[in-house]
């Protein structure tokens, strides 16, 4: 018998607690699926939203990001065996970017590890990982629970993000260092003025100085019941800095400028690859700095050690491409005539802030060298008349954009 | 460096641990064998289960250990003698007894003409196939995708051996390798008793019934292990005499065997095994550690998941390791009289598996978590050929009982008496008066085997023998060459290729690997 106890089949995509607020703000009604939730691709125009991230303050619904609560006596040992970074060194109140590999040293996914308390962590990932986490928990005294739906999350990013939070009344927010998190209480006046419903309980928000834009910015974590109140309070507080909700497409340009990798775009999780040679190791992706061979054993360590002994066959490189046309999916060649293929572009965009045509690409190792010239084969659509261009590109250092304000403590106002 | 440093520490003084230790010591290594129990032997030991009555504690017949291994280690010199060799197999039912021929050339008086004719052809072919597979058992499994000459040579050798079978036999091997034994036997034979007894050999010690796919593979394995010398033998003094001789050979070559020294964990230094810690707290260091414990115990308990990759740990924890076979020892006041033998002394191996249907039905119970209501038995009366095992006049009956699932609905503690009673009833039906002569009885369920012999799951072979847990993927991919993923840790137990059944090859192959590493 059909019952309504699990009506999920009626609504294939879940709605986040910010959905109604976002729908009200959406001008083009462009929603996309992310981890089983409906989120916004673009609210009005990508350009406007992008400039909110870089020149003002932006609000992005992060709720669909998969979150796990990991607790227990072995929580630290478990995470240290899971991820390639040293978790034992992570103090409560700190966050670390982390990645985890399979036995062969190939990347499964990346994410952030929040140390909430001595024996409690929060792991945020792009995709669901319960299967791998449970396999990894064999022999460890840990409890793993998915808490994605229990926490509403917003990314508040941009130069004016600290100012906005100060205006909101989060005292001392400017002293929060990058990769730190702290819990604040939303002052009653802010809450009360925003909360039309009038549930006057004090709202606790956890704030972490983290983000996916490479800029000054924060991520805010609250109880879903407080979600709309927080949204309203932020929109009010940031009004004079023209705070603007942004969608995934604007964020994608910002993350590319920051040189961050997107799963399934810049690499495919080794949990999903079927073909030989399509899985990527962190060493190939330039994430060697995340791999701590000096700490305790972690999954993939032996394979990575072996890889480290020999030069990787291909590397992820940043490219500065001539012209203004993004080199989407372009094949790369060593020569202009395109006789020798040496790799392909994974992400590309015109960077409005750098005024450069930037890209991330997997290139064969001999060509991974800053300043090296390569050729990109770009296809241009001229009113359905396709043109092929061979455009010169140079291997450059990542990130493409790294303003000093992103790391400054105390954080600036702007 | 501490003075108690050894080249190799071998965990467990069962037949594989001792075989490995003997080969290592003979090659000049300083070897220390650590055994948890008071006596060596493990599952190939002898125990006094009632005052004056002794029996082989788990395995009770020797039939898979190659003759060359016994000779290479000169076990006769260390006191190994056989009380009986080439023991006949006699299928016993209410209808009578049938002597199962062991060789195609053997006389098959008890079979009717049609079955006897078929048997000659069947047995000749099975012998050819199993001989072709024999090198597979003795080889160190090659690594997949390896360029090493040794791995290639092994594969080449196996290929050549199979090629030599010729087209007809190769085709038959391909046809039957994944088949169920019932279909194979139905193709050949009429007699239910003959088919029951042959099927019994295929399912003995496994989680299979005669209709389970892969049961021909287990039969071929048994035949390949035995080879031409498929003869069943019973050492004087039980299987413990074999492990005593192995311990003698190992000690003579310079190995030290320490008893009552249970290992708590393997020590790890800089991602390689560096010794062990005993349950007493004592630390012992060595260049390498060799474990004859089952893979689950070795990796998850002695080493610990934190030293291994998650995918590997998942494979180890998914190993099928649950035992399905029990063991019974009876102290009897007099010689049991089996009706079917018409007064003859039971010096052979009696198989109580009257038909394919009976075997499958016995399996049906176990499939759903119950013990067989009409269990199948492999019975020997070891004292009939080795009087020293029982006080004057008395006798010992030793039986392997199929099927007794490790995970019994309702638990073994509650049903142990019931199961023993069922077994005694089955025996009584074939040997009237036997129950009255029972002075003491001992039942070892898979749970008991787990506890007493420290085999996780209580499986004879440590891990089920099946195509998916065989050769290059035994116990699991990533440890099939007797090497753990961690440096200087090796496996040499029945969980490795080629498996258990008192064969000794896992121990000897592991020693070869360890010595090759140093060379």
Could you write a compact summary of the structure shown?
The complex is a heterodimer of chains A (414) and B (519). Chain A has 9 helices and 20 strands. Chain A is α+β, with helices and mostly antiparallel strands and 414 residues long.
**What is the oligomeric state here?**
heterodimer
Q: Indicate the CATH class of the domain at 6-49 and 63-82 and 236-318 and 465-518 in chain B.
A: Alpha Beta
CATH architecture of the largest domain in chain A: 2-Layer Sandwich
User: How much helicity do the residues of chain B have?
Assistant: 25-40%
Number of domains of chain A: 3
* Cα end-to-end separation of chain B: 23 Å
Terminal CA distance of chain A reads 59 Å
| The CATH homology group name of the domain at 6-49 and 63-82 and 236-318 and 465-518 in chain B | FAD/NAD(P)-binding domain
Q: What is the CATH third-level topology name of the domain at 6-49 and 63-82 and 236-318 and 465-518 in chain B?
A: FAD/NAD(P)-binding domain
Q: Give the name of the CATH architecture of the domain at 6-49 and 63-82 and 236-318 and 465-518 in chain B.
A: 3-Layer(bba) Sandwich
Name the beta content range of chain B: 15-25%
Widest sheet: strand ordering of chain A: 11-12-13-10-4-14
Q: How large is the radius of gyration of chain A? A: 22 Å
Helix content of chain A: 10-25%
Biggest beta sheet summary of chain B? 7 strands, mixed
